[in-house]
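Why does residue order matter? Because the sequence determines the fold. Keep that principle in mind as you read this record.
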Amino acid sequence: MTTLRQRMIELLREEELDALDLSQILSIREKEVYEHLPHIAKSVAAAGETLVIHPYVCLNCEYTFKERSRFNRPGRCPRCREGHIRMATYIIR
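Structure:
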């Protein structure tokens, strides 16, 4: 029997997913996914792998949230103040 984090790691090793995809596949809330991601990043780093994060991007002005250290979804763009933001995606390499 595998834990929730182990299942998330397996999924992220197979393909690039965002938090919403993970929540739907695993039948958990999106907020729970964000709570597990920092722990997953540490676990895979200890195994010599990396959790690669393709950052959030504003769909209006194309601002990229490169420096964002938190995993949760931003409310709106700091540049144009719009809320149309493409989800960050994650994959383990």
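The longest helix spans residues 30-46.
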